Amino acid sequence: MSIGLYIHIPFCKGKCPYCDFYSVRTDEELMNRYVASLVAEIGDWADELFNKEVSTIYIGGGSPSQIGGIRLRRIINAAKDNFNFVGNEITVELNPSDDMDEILPELAKAGVTRISLGMQSAVDEERKALGRRASADDVKRAIEKAKDNSITNISLDLMIGVPKQSLESLEQSLDFLKSADITHISFYMLSIEEGTHFYDISDKLVLPEEEDVCQMYEKTIEELEKSGFKQYEISNLAKEGFESQHNLKYWHCEEYLGIGPSAHSFLDGKRFYYPRDIELFINGTKPINDGNGGDFEEYAMLALRLTEGLQNERVIERFGKAIDKKIFNRAKKKKFKGLLKVNDNSIALTPKGFLVSNSIISELIEE
């Protein structure tokens, strides 16, 4: 089976107050050093994994667009030239405030087929509270520029439960998404993570009530599905045929290789990751072993993030035996509370179930 390739670009102009992804500020020299090391590491991994095909490439961050189109094109070409790339999905995350006039033509030349734009909110007051520099108009221009360069598979990010947000202001962001002529939406409930600025000032943050956030979640799904989107994962909706093939690899517990500081991998039943330190990466530090992966418990936890849920056919194909009847029996108890959909062949969470997914999944696979 083919693997997914993730490449981390750890640069940002500034740290958003909610973000706990690894990123640093940069300059021309550091960007050049990093890209050179990244290209070399790609070559080394391609030699080691010569017998594996790559079907998706995803460049994330940080803000990959900060390094500019020419460097991004060099990285993508290195991945395509070194690995046996057999897919048609190459995704790059972009910050709409960066130079789209320079970046998008280069991405098109490199064969990029999909971009993910960090919008978070179409409401300027909310965007400011989230530390976002681009305006809603910048997002519009980035979408138009991508289409001018024949990149039409476009995903936007939306955050719910953020400072200054209400059910009414959410309407403005949903209206923007519905009118944007895009193919995919990733939407996340704000989570206050340790090590972020929001964590440091958490006692001062004024956030929507939990009940309102739950209503926002359900409203987002309901309104976007009216416009042709379909939820396929807890935090993702897509128009038919435009689900993220790379992210589906994660949720189907398939193999992937991550390159760059903080990037994680799962290959041949083993998990490993690079330290969160750009200088260690540039100096050739290799990944750290993170134990075994891919057992039934992990597989089930990931599968239950998807609207298709945990399917007997896939479980038998992977593990050689069906889902334990005890799990089905536990699931049937939740079915009558409107939290799960259960039949003889699958168990899947409902939209209401997704709101309490962690506790449900823990109960289902407790043994």
Describe the overall structure.
The protein is α/β, with parallel strands linked by helices and 367 residues long. The chain has two domains: 3-251, Aldolase class I (TIM Barrel), CATH 3.20.20.70; 307-364, Arc Repressor Mutant, subunit A. It has 15 helices and 15 strands. The strands form three sheets. A nine-stranded mixed sheet has the order 7-8-6-5-4-3-2-1-9, with helices on both faces. Strand 10 and strand 11 (270-273) form a beta hairpin. Helix 6 packs parallel to helix 8 (210-226). The longest helix is centred in the first third of the chain and has 21 residues, at 28-48. The radius of gyration is 21 Å and the shape is globular.
**Strand adjacency order, main sheet:** 7-8-6-5-4-3-2-1-9
Q: Mind telling me which CATH architecture of the largest domain this is?
A: Alpha-Beta Barrel
Specify the number of helices: 15
**Under the CATH scheme, which class of the largest domain?**
Alpha Beta
Mean pLDDT: 94
**Into which percentage range does the β-strand content fall?**
15-25%
Shape: globular
N to C succession of SSEs: EHEHEHEHHEHEHHEEHEEEHEHEHHEEHH
Output the structural class.
Answer: alpha/beta
Q: CATH homologous superfamily of the largest domain - what is it?
A: Aldolase class I
Oligomer: single chain
Q: Low-confidence parts lasting 5 or more residues at pLDDT below 50?
A: none
Distance between the termini: 29 Å
Q: How many structural units, i.e. domains?
A: 2
Number of strands: 15
Describe the main β-sheet briefly: 9 strands, mixed
